[in-house]
Each structure stands twice: as C-alpha cells, then as structure tokens.
Amino acid sequence: MIVVIDYGMGNLGSVLKSLKRLTIDAKISTSIQDIELADKLILPGVGHFSNGMKHLKEYDYLNILNDKVIKDQTPILGICLGMQLFSSHSHEGNVDGLGWIDAEVVRFEIEDKVKWKIPHMGWNSVDIKRKSTFLGGIDQDEQFYFVHSYHMNCMVKEDVLSSTEYAFEFTSAIQKGNIYGTQFHPEKSHDKGLEILNNFVHKI
C-alpha cells in the first residue's frame, strides 16, 4: 500500500489521481496506523514551509515519520513543499525542517524580476546529475512542471539527482538512500511525470 500523507497542505487529490491512472494501490490518509503499515510514503504539499512543519507536528507525525523513514528505511517521496520539508532549515519562516537532507531552503533572489518572475511557474527542463532508478526512462533536458518561490540548496552534492536553470541553477530532484524528492510536480507533468511515479512505486 502506498500512503499519500494528508497533513492539511493540499495537492493530494491530483497525486492520488495520477497513482490510480497507474493502477497503483494507494490511499490518502491522516492515520498513523496507515503510515505504520505503508510500503511506501508520499509527502506532497503546496504552501508555506513553516505551516507545513506546524501541521506535521499538529498531526503528531514527527515520531512515526522518523521511525518509518530513518529507522525502517521505508521509501518516501516528497513533492514540492514535501521535498523541502526534508531539509535542515528553511528561510521561509526561519524554521527547522525534518533534517533528513543536509540542505537549506531559500527564496529565489533574482535582480531581473521582469525576465525571471517569482514564483517560478510552468514547464522547465531538468539536468540529470547522476543515474538513478528513480529517474529511469527520463531523458536529459526532459520538461516538468514547477510552481515555487523557494528552492533547496543541498550541502552534499551526491544528494542531488537533477538541477534546473531559472536565472541560476537550483536543485530540482534529490535522493539520499530511501529518501526521494522532486521540486517539480510529477502529477502535473503528463507521461514523464507518471513514469517517475511508476519508478518510485514499482522499481525502488
């Protein structure tokens, strides 16, 4: 069973719909028991980082997530805000994240705001930095859909699976052991996005 974790930060339905298109056994849940029993986890999310961490605490998810992901090594996929929450710290609200990835989340600092609008919204390509089953079947410079104003700066380059150019290079996908993340939205990225979700569920 794949559990899409509901912590009140939206974008759950489109993720579940994409999984159902792939005939994947998945459910949206707030149940700690469901998280305990899950074979794999997906943490989507849109919105403010500090609200995301606040909600994870209010839903009493921190202990179970650390047990599942760090102790039991259950695969987890973070999407957009979900990936950012894996980091050590975010400038968005000046709060600590889950601390699974040695990284900080910072706002796009771009002088030419006419040419480079914030939030970064729309289709953009990914530069694959290393081979991974997670990105199997994805060509170099493949296009994916983004919507975000903050991005992750990884301190360990080996954690970076892909980067994307938007005025400068930023991290667009990560992997550290059983922890995976995309800044882009695979559930909104048509066939190639579905391929990434399929890789996570069936090939990892």
Please explain how this structure is put together.
Helices cover 26% and strands 33% of the residues. The chain has 204 residues and is of the alpha/beta class. The protein has one domain (2-202): Class I glutamine amidotransferase (GATase) domain (Rossmann fold, 3-Layer(aba) Sandwich), CATH 3.40.50. The strands form three sheets. It has an eight-stranded mixed beta sheet with strand order 2-1-3-4-14-13-12-9. The mean pLDDT is 97.
Give the secondary structure arrangement, pairings included.
Elements: E1 2-5, H1 12-21, E2 26-29, H2 32-37, E3 40-43, H3 49-58, H4 62-71, E4 76-79, H5 81-84, E5 87-90, E6 95-96, E7 101-107, E8 120-125, E9 127-128, E10 143-148, E11 150-154, E12 160-166, E13 168-176, E14 179-182, H6 190-202
Parallel strand pairs: 1-2, 1-3, 3-4, 4-14, 5-7
Antiparallel strand pairs: 5-6, 7-11, 8-10, 9-12, 12-13, 13-14
Radius of gyration: 16 Å
- Give me the secondary-structure category: alpha/beta
Helix content: 25-40%
Shape: globular
Task: Give the overall average pLDDT.
Answer: 97
Total E-strand runs: 14
> pLDDT below 50 for ≥5 consecutive residues: which ranges?
none
> What's the architecture, going by CATH?
3-Layer(aba) Sandwich
Strand order of the largest sheet: 2-1-3-4-14-13-12-9
Under CATH at level 1, the class stands as Alpha Beta
Order of helices and strands: EHEHEHHEHEEEEEEEEEEH
How many domains make up the 3D coordinates?
Answer: 1
Terminal CA distance reads 14 Å
